[in-house]
Amino acid sequence: MFSLQKLLGKEDKFFDLLEASAEEARTSVQALVKLTKTPDQTALLYEFIQSRRKEKQISAEIREAVYNTFVTALEREDIENLSNALYRIPKTVEKLGERIILTPQFLKDLDFSKQIGFLEQATDLVPAMVKVLRKGTNLEQLKSLNDKLQYLEGEADKAMMDHYKDLFSGKHDTLKVIVMKDLYELLEKVVDRCRDVGNIISHIVLKNS
């Protein structure tokens, strides 16, 4: 058991910013859920842009706080790595949203619900893992959350293989294969970004336990 609050000189600002960053990651995925249901609604792109901008601002505040606050035990590099990993989630989601808006005609007969479901669960776990850092945690609690995240990433990979199997079956035209392959890869990358956050948090906890 350890307390990151002590390691950070009881500076709540770090926790506030990291938690806000994790929430923005979840918000961006919720916008993606709405977009997959109505892919022709270009106005929804604004939600992705706003989420990514907020995340970028939060990242800048974390960077400034890292260099202006004396940290005695927790390495500043760890805080920055976590902040950067969180930022990559909405950034990747925005790219995916842009692709969907550009090619809504290819999504009419496709069902992304299973993959999106994994993504929603993953971005629910990310804020939970970040919140654990404020009050301090034990390894068992963190391991349970990270194991769930790793499991979701594995299941998402399996679902992706099913998508690829259909995509390369020969029943789709070439342009559609190219477009959908790009979308599938971005979907997979978002889940991988969530996994990266879990790994970084686990590394921080293990190093300071």
UniProtKB/TrEMBL annotation:
Its signal peptide is none
Which segments cross the bilayer?
none
Domain of life of the organism encoding this protein:
Bacteria
Query: Which InterPro entries does its entry note?
Result: PhoU-like_sf (IPR038078), Put_Phosphate_transp_reg (IPR018445), UPF0111_domain (IPR052912)
Pfam families listed in its UniProt record? PhoU_div (PF01865)
Q: Which family does it belong to?
A: Belongs to the UPF0111 family.
Protein name, UniProt field: Putitive phosphate transport regulator
Q: What is the lineage of its organism?
A: Bacteria, Pseudomonadati, Verrucomicrobiota, Pedosphaerae, Pedosphaerales
